[in-house]
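Workshop exercise sheet. Pairs work together: one partner reads the sequence aloud, the other fills in the structure field after running the prediction. Swap roles for the next sheet.
Pair: D.N. / O.F.
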Amino acid sequence: MVLTLIYLISPVQALMVKLDMEELIIGADTIVIGRVEKMRCEWSLDRETIHTVVTMQIIDSLKGNVNDRILFIQVPGGTIGELSLKVSDMPVFNENEEVLVFLRSIPNPEKRAHSMSVVQKTWPSFEVFAQAQGKFSIDSQGMAVRYGYDLVSQADDHDRILPLEELKLKIHETLVRIVKERR
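Structure field:
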């Protein structure tokens, strides 16, 4: 008797549950519009993972207290030499790209990238809230576009593409309403 084993190999895909705009706005410490100046891949301090550190010039702050005009965003994954780490549903940034991002601060210096200078470690450092859902690329037509993630139900993703001014208005109106409700 011959026993044959057949392995079916299929790609594994992560699906995330969509956060609505209000959940993004409430969950983020900071919401800014900015331009990506540069990116570099670095080891974490414990040298167990690779992060891409995005240096961003702030154009406009919509939520939060960002006193500096530059901030750093750490994104899990990247390439150092011939070693690459890819993490599903993480936002992808490009140099000179204009973006609107929903951010959470990284308060612990030990979670910051290994080679950040002493000065850089005192500057604001963030991660994107809700992974790729928390990053909108702004195109030359003034449209804010999200991509790079898969939802349990794509039908729920009606705000994947919005005019930037409409998105800014939604954020402002939501923040005003929340402040009024808390009074």
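Discussion prompt: The two ends are 77 Å apart (CA to CA). What would you look at next?
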